[in-house]
Write a structure and sequence with these properties.
The N terminus is likely disordered. This protein is globular. By secondary structure, it is mainly beta. Helices cover 4% and strands 64% of the residues. The chain has a 22-stranded antiparallel barrel. Strands 3-8-9-6-7 form a 5-stranded mixed beta sheet. The chain has a two-stranded antiparallel sheet with strand order 1-2. The protein has a single domain, classed as Maltoporin, Chain A (Beta Barrel), CATH 2.40.170.20. The two termini are 44 Å apart.
Length: 598
């Protein structure tokens, strides 16, 4: 404990606030206006999953090492209920409902918005930052523990005053054989060779902008399995995405948003039990229209159409999903209210369609300057995935969609002095109810065969609290923040063996302490993450904590170029822990690197 306190105190002296939790009103990608969000800045050198660990109410499932699957869920609802967006377009996976964050081009991302009302995480690409030159770019390399090498390159070109191009490529090469457990056994078969590349074309016009994006991912990785069932299986995956978006305000009272996407994914498993191949294609077209009726009233209509097809070893499936949302926003002196009704239709090949309607209400009331009350309520549906419905020997075509109600009430307070100091605080209490939860249970005909059923029910309630202090001076910049989340997510399924117990992997208590300080090109970051009160089907999991420190120095090479040297230590206390039972996480590791910007 003394060493923990000493190291963390040293980090807090130079700590970083996790990108202030502020109350902002945004237009969500499906056209519904919401006001309960977290905005995070993604810095160069960190992964998307590592950044999201700063959110206590967000659960991350990580199967260990850079090669392991990484998926997220909000407030006990499961990863299939949490939508992932990239530049306003959904990252879809009808097969399993889990989107692997490791597939995203993390080195190009600038920010992430966690939306509690819409139960989604939206990543945004960082736009090029040009100085006096029409050319810019960055060449970087990180290397360190477990035989890890991560080169990256990005080039930006300002073609005209209104059009710019950004192209990027990066790679990950790691042995992944890290020690785990008290006896320092070696976790083998977790190697990864990955290549990511793509481009972004940005454009502006009178009253609007457009963005064309394409990226590819190709990797070859080991899948060592759990400690209980080790394997020498391997996975190869290839992904190609082409998408574009268009936004234009034609008048002061009418704005049009359009986006489209084509995606192609292939996953090939090589196993001693037999090989499997999955080919998935995804096509989307989305439109949102906003109408300002008066100074205090606005309307929006959003319509989305998506088609996904899967060709797999053992079964084929196809799905057409249609979404329509009508929203009305009211703005008065102190009150902002947003109402919406969403329709969602899911139509699978050879099956009866699923239809649902989801109302939502979002309110923000300003009691005084810098002090707001917020609340929202929303119904949400989640259609069963292809695997849950059709997987040979496991799928159940009669499954109903999961039906959830999400509610939240909170307060926001922020204060900024005439100088460089700012202080903010936030408190939220929430209650989520999920019925028709899809769980697996022994079949009536054969207890050794498990099938998915709609017999589950979950009730999740809790509170999120945060406090952040920030200083922005001419020479010094820095901040401290503390965040705490309490979540009680209980299985309320009648006659369940785990009735009234915490659902798997949702932490009852989470503490995140963070901070940063910078001066004269130096920057030091600290992050301490503690999670306890987690369970799975076999019982309680040990609490875990990690301490990460990062130190960097930026040197000015010339007027238009700079060199940044950095060293990052992760899990410095060498906590041996598991996010998923029998899938150990790496212990202490160190990465050093450079980034040359021009």
């Amino acid at each position: 404990m003394f060493l923990t306190s000493l190291l963390f105190a040293a980090g807090l002296l130079v700590a970083e606030t996790p990108d202030t939790l502020q109350a902002v009103t945004i237009v969500a990608d499906k056209g519904v206006v919401v006001s309960r969000t977290d905005t995070l800045v993604l810095r160069t050198g960190g992964t998307a999953a590592e950044t999201l660990l700063r959110i206590p109410g967000l659960g991350l499932s990580d199967y260990g090492g850079l090669a392991g699957l990484k998926s997220i869920s909000l407030r006990g609802l499961g990863s299939a209920h949490t939508d992932i967006y990239l530049d306003g377009v959904r990252v879809s996976n009808f097969q399993s409902g889990q989107n692997d964050l490791g597939m995203l081009p993390a080195e190009t991302l600038g920010s992430a918005v966690v939306d509690y009302a819409q139960n989604s995480v939206s990543f945004r690409t960082a736009k090029p930052d040009f100085g006096r030159s029409p050319f810019a770019g960055q060449v970087g390399l990180q290397a360190g523990s477990f035989g890890t090498w991560m080169p990256s390159v990005r080039f930006d070109v300002k073609a005209t005053e209104r059009v710019s191009l950004s192209a990027h490529a990066s790679g990950i090469l790691t042995r992944g054989d890290f020690p785990y457990g008290e006896d320092n056994a070696l976790r083998k078969g977790n190697d990864l060779r990955q290549l990511r590349a793509g481009y972004d074309l940005f454009g502006t016009m009178d009253g609007g902008e457009w963005h064309l994006k394409s990226y590819i991912n190709a990797s070859d990785r080991g899948t060592p399995g759990s400690l209980s069932w080790p394997s020498e299986d391997r996975q190869q995956d290839k992904n190609l995405v082409v998408q574009g978006s268009f936004r234009k305000a034609f008048t002061d009272r009418y704005t049009l948003n359009l986006s489209a996407k084509g995606g192609w994914d292939n996953i090939f498993y090589r196993s001693a039990w037999g090989n499997s191949n999955y080919d998935f294609s995804d096509f989307q077209i989305n439109a949102s229209q906003a109408f300002r009726v008066s100074d205090w009233w606005a309307l929006s209509l959003a319509t989305d159409l998506e088609r996904g097809t899967l060709g797999a070893s053992g079964y084929d499936a196809a799905r057409t999903a249609a979404i329509a949302a009508l929203a009305s926003a009211f703005r008065f002196e102190r009150l902002r209210a947003d109402l919406a009704l969403e329709y969602r239709g899911t139509f699978d090949k050879g099956a009866e369609g699923l239809n649902s309607f989801s109302p939502s209400l979002d309110i923000r009331y300003t009691l005084s300057e810098g002090f707001d009350l917020v609340a929202f309520g929303r119904r949400a549906f989640r259609a069963p995935t292809f695997n849950e419905l059709y997987y040979p020997g496991y799928g159940n075509p009669g499954l109903k969609p999961e039906d959830a109600w999400l509610t939240d009430f909170g307060i926001d307070w922020h204060s900024r002095s005439d100088g460089a100091w700012s202080l903010s605080a936030q408190l939220d209490v929430f209650y989520n109810r999920l019925k028709d939860k899809i769980i697996s249970a022994p079949s009536p005909d054969d207890p050794w065969v498990w099938l998915p059923y709609n017999v589950g029910r979950v009730e999740a309630w809790g509170a999120d609290a945060s406090l952040a202090l920030r200083y922005e001076g001419d020479a010094w910049k820095g901040g401290l923040s503390a965040r705490y989340a309490r979540q009680s997510a209980l299985d309320k399924t009648p006659d369940s063996a785990s009735y009234d117990q915490q659902i798997p992997y949702v932490a009852k208590n989470t503490v995140v302490l963070a901070g940063d300080i910078s001066r004269a090109g130096w920057r030091l970051d600290a992050l301490w993450n503690w999670r306890g009160g987690r369970f799975d089907a076999t019982g309680e999991l040990p609490a875990w904590n990690t301490l990460d420190l990062s130190l960097g120095k930026t040197f000015t090479v010339c007027d238009a170029a700079s060199l940044t040297l950095s060293v990052t230590g992760r899990n410095l206390l060498d906590c041996r822990y598991e996010m998923v039972r029998d899938y150990p996480m790496p212990g202490r590791s160190v990465l050093g690197g450079f980034a040359f910007k021009f």
